[in-house]
Specification:
8-stranded mixed β-sheet; 56% helix; NLR-like; lipid degradation; hydrolase; PNPLA domain-containing protein; lipid metabolism
């Protein structure tokens, strides 16, 4: 978008282009004022380079800028550049010499004297001497400095001229320089006549408001309407100060003061840019202020000139600043002559004359050129065109969608198409981001439409525009309110007593109002049911956008990288345009950008926070994808705190398939529904079919984490998420499988960062629960990782002999055992030694802490027996087993479950050695006792029955094995359910038995059914499912081979 000039197309030259006001505002900041001068030097050097190329004489700042104003350091520079007519190089030399002379020696290292009163730390006499030495030939250039009256605390302007209707203090150049430089604790106050002055850093450190007020007094004192007279407003800061300037201060007051100054300077800039947004967008207002690198440079550290120059250079080479510097120079290049005090009347006469000369042209008040890179969206464009001008009332339409999805570009393309078909239709575009820039946009519309009274600042300009467009004589029109996200701005009564903004909407049968908004709730309130949602782009359209914005179109030849990159960017137009800008600027490949996206989260957020040049967006609105939602986050936090809490919570869990039951409970069910509705209305979340879960947009998830990290609350919210997960996460009982699977991914995500460093009880307990569920699901590697981490944490926090530590160590040993069992199918992993080492360690500690005959000690001994047996160390295992059984019988009793478990383990070991009779005898004994103690249908009894069937199976006693398998299976179906893992084990065992009996068809059908159930219940990768699949594949292969042999 080119807006260096304001010339009316096809009309007479606009005097604003050649004679409009050029204003220069200079911040305070001690020796960091050199940064201001380095910025001005770049601008003036490039401007004069262009002038020489055009055979024009070089110019000094005093010849370009009609008014220069500054505070403190900025005041000194304003005097040198303005009243003393120095060029920038002369000013840098003079200022450097002045700083060295003044700050080289302190008169006092303490800012307070013995009585506690503020005293100077530098010699004011040296400052005065340096200023007098810097003086050259004075001129009549209009410049002023800001200082503060020490009695009233008011900001006072000391001028190089007089104004008839303003108080004028007669001050010499030296007095003005001293007064604006008299920083508290640095120099003594300055007396001029009977009044005493100090610098105005606290109140006008960024003097843009003072420059605006002074220019209004000079050129438009009657109307106060300065904006239409300003060609270029340049504001230059001295960099982000940090807190170093006052580190030497002994009194807290000084530290608080510097924070106030920095905050006030930033707030002044924000408020000013909101009021001057149109100038910013049209490249007529510029603000340059080094963001990083000057924080460690104090107000008096004159020797750090090189560091100041380096930081300033680093700031200016950033692509965003390069474009702004270019735009500023293009603006200033057109300046030809200075305006006189009648310039206000000249502009007013020109405006009225151009309106009279083009009465038949329908107004076109749109801040953006057509986006020739626009592509796709044809169905939505057709939908919008069909909704225009179809009823006997004002049509209202709202386009809604996620920030960055392309709502503004969609409507921009729409109005250009309307203009092509309806030349007589007026098009008016009003940014609705803030009330300040909306108010200014209304006044600009009033001026462009020639509405009587528009120039009167006391008039209700919104009412005037409403009345104008509501008349039949206004003809056909389209009024666009872009970024209408703040519903309070539309429906609440303002504090100034005027009507809500919605009441100022015009009414006309020939009119159409289009809103763009990120908030569907706002869209419904403004346009009722006339909502068009800008949805995510298709992959093909996203590829077209990337191609349109890339310099090197050949990069798209790599289809794989293109596809992956677009997927990573979620086909979001803003993210694609930003990526293209970065790739163009750095000359990298798509694969290089993909590598950056795979970096650490903080680096990815930095990448997606990179500013980039985009002519289709407002200059005062941040455009990177990672920051575009910040204003929405803040608005949600103010309007719906619970929605902000939900968003913060969801940033700490997996972004996919979030069950509503996982969210922290709100004050009421209605408030919970409203909060989820708010996030849905902003398109931050997408509901899954059935409403049982929703997804949070991946980039929104990332940006929210960046927002929480910036607010320094990410760790706090992560702990809250872990505490909530620990509360709702069930144990690994089979009946809870569907619940824990809904929460698995979220618990894993929340536990990822710094598990070992942050060992809250919630965190450790959740990790333990998660590990057990992974174990039950056969995900042994993941279970192992969690158990190892939890074991280390509990060791460190509770000690190695604490029961919780020993339990985790035992779980870990069990994990190693299960992994080895899995290895019988997928090759032995040989991890018995690790299991044995842990079990021995736990056993010895339990013997020491609990005693050799404690049940927990005996249980770990029983586990050790199994591990030794699985290594083929039968003699050691059997000896230990007998010891465990005898001790358990004596301590707990013959029929105690632990005694029966040890007997069952010994029988299993006999079976593994092929000692079938001993195994059968012992198992039958255990089964009878379990029937008597626990009951015939108890799960433990059925496990013994199932294992006794295996002994029959191993001996080829198929009928007996089948009978027990059927009995165990039917009982398990009835007691546990058809989907229970134990029931499925009986089903698989029966299939194996039938296969050995030659009942192949029945075996295949039963195993296929078992696989289907195991896949659904346990998952395709569970070891039991894999085992069944392997067996079925073998059987099917054997059947095919037999069939082939028979054919031969």
């Amino acid at each position: 978008m080119e807006r260096a000039t304001a010339t009316e197309q096809g009309g007479e030259p606009n005097p604003l282009d050649t004679t409009g006001l050029c204003l220069l505002s200079l911040d305070g900041g001690g020796v960091r004022g050199l940064s201001t001068l380095y910025i001005l030097k770049i601008i003036m050097d490039r401007l004069n380079h262009d002038r020489r190329a055009a055979a024009l004489q070089p110019v000094r700042p005093c010849e370009v800028f009609d008014l220069i104003g500054g505070t403190s350091t900025g005041g000194l520079i304003a005097i040198m550049l303005g009243r003393l007519e120095m060029d920038v190089d002369e000013c840098i030399a003079a200022y450097s010499e002045l700083a060295a002379a003044v700050f080289s020696q302190k008169s006092s290292r303490i800012p307070f004297n013995i009585k506690g009163k503020i005293q100077e730390r530098f010699d004011s006499a040296k400052l005065e001497s340096a200023i007098r030495k810097a003086r050259g030939q004075s001129s009549d250039h209009i410049s002023f400095v800001c200082t503060a009256d020490r009695n009233t605390k008011n900001i006072v302007r000391l001028r190089s001229y007089t104004l008839p209707d303003e108080p004028n203090i007669r001050a010499t150049i030296c007095q003005a320089a001293l007064a604006t430089s008299a920083a508290t604790t640095f120099f003594d106050p300055v007396s001029i006549g009977d009044r005493s002055f100090a610098d105005a850093a606290l109140g006008a450190n960024n003097p843009v408001d003072e420059v605006e007020g002074e220019a209004s007094n000079i050129w438009c004192s009657e109307t106060g309407d300065l904006k239409r007279l300003v060609k270029c407003f340049l504001s230059v800061g001295t960099g982000n100060p940090g807190k170093k300037p006052f580190e030497n201060s002994l009194i807290r007051f000084l530290g608080e003061t510097v924070v106030q100054i920095a905050t006030e300077t930033t707030n002044t800039e924000k408020k000013f840019i909101a009021r001057w947004a149109k100038h910013f967008d049209e490249k007529r207002y510029f603000r340059f202020d080094v963001e990083q690198g000057l924080q460690d440079i104090g107000l008096d550290e004159y020797k750090k000139k090189g560091a100041i120059e380096g930081a300033t250079e680093g700031y200016l080479i950033h692509i965003a600043q390069k474009f702004r510097v270019r735009d500023c120079i293009q603006n200033l290049r057109l300046k030809q002559k200075k305006p006189d005090t009648s310039f206000d009347a000249i502009i007013k006469e020109y405006t009225e004359r151009t309106i009279r000369q083009h009465p038949g042209d329908a107004p076109w008040i749109v801040p953006f050129d057509r986006n020739h890179c626009f592509t796709g969206r044809e169905s939505q464009l057709s939908q919008l065109q069909d909704m225009l001008f179809i009823k006997d009332q004002t049509t209202k339409i709202a386009v809604t969608g996620l920030g960055g999805v392309g709502k503004t570009q969609l409507v921009l393309e729409l109005i250009y198409r309307i203009r092509e078909e309806h030349r007589e239709c007026s098009i008016i575009w009003i940014p609705a981001i803030h009330i300040e820039n909306l108010q200014q946009a209304y006044r600009d519309v009033g001026q462009r439409l020639g509405i009587p009274g528009w120039e009167d600042n006391k008039s209700d300009i919104k009412k005037l525009v409403k009345e104008y467009l509501s008349k039949e004589s206004a003809g056909q029109w389209v009024l666009v309110f872009d970024n209408a996200d703040d519903i309070d701005m539309w429906i609440k009564n303002p504090e100034n007593g005027s009507l809500p903004l919605i009441d100022y909407l015009p009414r006309s049968k020939r009119g159409c109002i289009i809103f763009t908004t990120r908030d569907r709730k706002t869209a419904v309130k403004l346009a009722n049911q006339n909502i068009v949602e800008a949805l995510a782009m298709s992959e093909e359209t996203a590829k077209d956008i990337l191609q349109n914005y890339l310099v090197n179109k050949g990069l798209l030849d790599n289809e794989t990288d293109t596809k992956v990159l677009l997927g990573q960017l979620t086909y979001l137009p803003l993210a694609i345009v930003q990526a293209a800008a970065y790739i163009n600027e750095n000359g990298i490949l798509l694969a290089d950008y993909l590598l950056l996206l795979e970096d650490q989260e903080e680096e990815v957020i930095d990448l997606l926070s990179e500013e980039f040049e985009d002519s289709g967006r407002y200059r005062n609105v941040k455009n990177p994808v990672a920051t575009t939602w910040l204003i929405s986050f803040e608005r949600i936090r103010l309007r719906d705190p619970l929605a902000a809490e939900f968003l913060s919570f969801m940033a700490c869990i997996d972004p996919k398939s979030v069950p509503p039951s996982l969210l922290p409970p709100g004050p009421s069910r209605k408030k919970e529904v409203d909060a989820i509705g708010t996030l849905d209305a902003y398109s931050f979340i997408t509901r899954r079919s059935g409403g049982l879960a929703f997804d949070i947009h991946r980039l929104v998830h990332l940006a929210t984490r960046g927002w929480l990290r910036k607010e320094e609350v990410l760790a706090q919210w992560t702990e809250r998420a872990i505490a909530r997960l620990e509360d709702v996460f069930p144990d690994n009982d089979h009946q809870n499988r569907s619940v824990w699977r809904r929460y698995l991914a979220h618990a894993s995500y929340a536990l990822k960062p710094n598990l070992l460093e942050k060992c809250s009880g919630y965190r450790i307990n959740l990790a333990r629960k998660l590990g057990m569920c992974f174990y039950s699901d056969g995900r042994f590697n993941e279970a192992e990782g969690l158990f190892v981490q939890v074991m280390k944490s509990t060791k460190r926090e509770l000690g190695i002999e604490h029961p919780s530590t020993l339990t985790i160590m035992n779980n870990l040993a069990s994990t190693y055992q299960s992994q080895a069992n899995l290895a019988t199918i997928f090759r032995n992993q040989g991890r018995w030694k690790e299991a044995e080492d842990l079990e021995v360690q736990v056993m010895e500690i339990r013997k020491k802490v609990l005693g050799a005959e404690h049940p927990d000690t005996l249980r770990i001994m029983n586990d050790l027996v199994l591990t030794l047996g699985n290594q083929g160390r039968w003699k050691e295992a059997e000896d230990l087993h007998v010891q465990v059984i005898e001790t358990t019988k004596r301590v707990l009793g013959t029929e105690h479950p632990d005694t029966l478990t040890s007997m069952y383990s010994l029988a299993s070991m006999f079976r593994n050695q092929g000692r079938w009779n001993e195994a059968e005898e012992l198992l039958a004994q255990v089964m009878e006792m379990r029937k008597r103690v626990l009951g015939v249908e108890h799960p433990s009894t059925l496990i013994i029955m199932n294992n006794l069937a295996l002994i029959f199976w191993n001996q080829g006693r198929w009928k007996e094995a089948e009978k027990l398998n059927v009995q165990a299976g039917e009982t398990r179906k009835r007691v546990l359910g058809v989907d229970h893992p134990d029931t499925l084990t009986s089903m698989a065992n029966l299939a194996f038995t039938w296969e050995r009996q030659g009942r192949d068809t029945e075996a295949l059908e039963l195993m296929e059914e078992c696989i289907q159930l195991r896949t659904r219940v346990l998952g395709i990768h569970h070891p039991d499912t894999v085992s069944s699949l392997t067996a079925l594949t073998c059987w099917q292969t054997e059947k095919l081979n037999i069939g082939a042999e028979n054919e031969e």
